[in-house]
Structure formats: C-alpha cells, structure tokens
C-alpha cells in the first residue's frame, strides 16, 4: 500500500519541487534547485501564502500554491499561483485532494473563493476546474517587465 498525504510544504521539499517544475515546463530549468529552495524559504517565512504538497512514499509528486488576493472591487480571494501534479500521477485524484485542501484552507481563513489562470491550450485542466465549480470568466493576455 502506498503511503500518501497532503501537508504543508517544507524547505526540504525543494528538490522534488524543482523536478515537478521541470516536469510541468522544461524551460523552467533555468530556475535552479537552489533558487527553488530560497523561494520556499521566502514564501513560507515572509508571506501569507500557503503551499500544500501531495507526498507519496516520501516523495512530493504534486503541489498547489495559494496566495491571498485583495482587490478594491472584490471580496478577498485565494489566487492559485502554481498547481502541478507529476505527469504519471495525474487523473488519479491527487490534484483533487490538493485543490480541495487549498479550498478548505481558504474557507477556514475567511476568503470568499478562489481564482486561477490556466493556459488556453490546457483543455484537460479546464474540465478539471469546471467539474469543481470554477467558472470561466475571461481571456487575458499576460504581460511582464523584467528589471535589469
């Protein structure tokens, strides 16, 4: 029997998180394991964000990153900043366990709902969200400016 649980992230999870990011998008390899470790430390110590991991047999095979989201025109939400389950472990209920845990955390902490972005090509992910009561609201273009 496989030992599995959903728990809060630990700094020691950085290697598995790095591998999950690679699994999700190989272009993320420029963000080193050491940088992932630093980010976990910053996020867990200096922000109000929460990251839950799905651990199975002492390996992290999925995570979801939620961040409090405050707007001047909406009740408080939890913004999903990252949500990854290892490719070979998808469609087995592990992602459902992660998102349900984050939703419960949001409810317990007084948030009115959750918000997330999903790439237009990720049709399976869109169906996953819609089955859980998420509604498509709008197409957007994302812009970024790097400081040099």
From TrEMBL:
Occurrences of domain N-acetyltransferase (ranges): 4-148
InterPro entries in the record: Acyl_CoA_acyltransferase, GNAT_dom
Signal sequence, renumbered to the chain: none
PROSITE patterns to which the protein is assigned, alphabetical: GNAT
Pfam families: Acetyltransf_1
Name of this protein: GNAT family N-acetyltransferase
Organism in which the protein naturally occurs: Paenibacillus alginolyticus
């Amino acid at each position: 029997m496989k030992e599995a649980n959903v728990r809060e992230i630990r700094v020691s999870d950085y290697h598995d998180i790095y591998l999950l990011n690679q699994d999700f998008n190989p272009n993320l390899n420029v963000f080193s394991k050491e940088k992932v470790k630093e980010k976990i430390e910053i996020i867990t110590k200096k922000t109000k964000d929460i990251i839950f991991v799905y651990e199975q047999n002492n390996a992290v095979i999925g995570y979801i990153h939620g961040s409090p989201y405050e707007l001047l025109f909406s009740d408080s939400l939890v913004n999903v900043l990252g949500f990854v389950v290892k490719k070979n472990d998808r469609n087995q209920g592990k992602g459902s366990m992660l998102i349900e845990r984050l939703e419960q955390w949001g409810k317990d902490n007084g948030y009115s709902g959750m918000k997330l972005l999903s790439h237009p090509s990720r049709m399976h992910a869109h169906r996953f969200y819609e089955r859980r009561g998420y509604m498509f609201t709008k197409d957007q273009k994302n812009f970024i400016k790097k400081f040099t």
